Amino acid sequence: MAASVSEARAGAATRNTIQRALVLEAVQSLHDHPTSADVYEVVRKKHPNISRATVYRNLGVLASRGEVLRVEVPNGADRYDYLNEPHYHAKCRVCGRIVDVDMPYVSDMAARVTDAHGFTIEGHEIIFDGVCRECQAPA
Ligand code: ZN
Ligand code: MN
User: Fold this and answer.
1) Which ligand is closest to the CA of 73, given by its number?
2) Distance 81 CA to ligand 1 centre (A)
């Protein structure tokens, strides 16, 4: 009896690991800052039996482990990023697209704060506003 319980647990652990790997692989295949819904669509194509809740849960686990980057977008859905090193983004105010911005990460940003009013700073993110190349092109 005890053996079958632990076998069941091992089976569940293996399934979780496999599902997490599928979700990670999907994020890594998408280079355009997908939403959770976008990631689900990619996973579902290859694995029609995986549920939306499972994909979303695993995105949360991967983000909390730092295996993918979660980009919180003001007034928009969170995006996921295969590039899990700190870097900056720009958001197109026309189409909502999120793109990477190439600039060195400002690691001493917190040190430049002269008074945080008691707030403990743990990090920073930058999302530049503007218009992407496609939206600037004449129609
Ligand atoms: Zn745009
Ligand atoms: Mn990015």
Assistant:
1) 2
2) 18
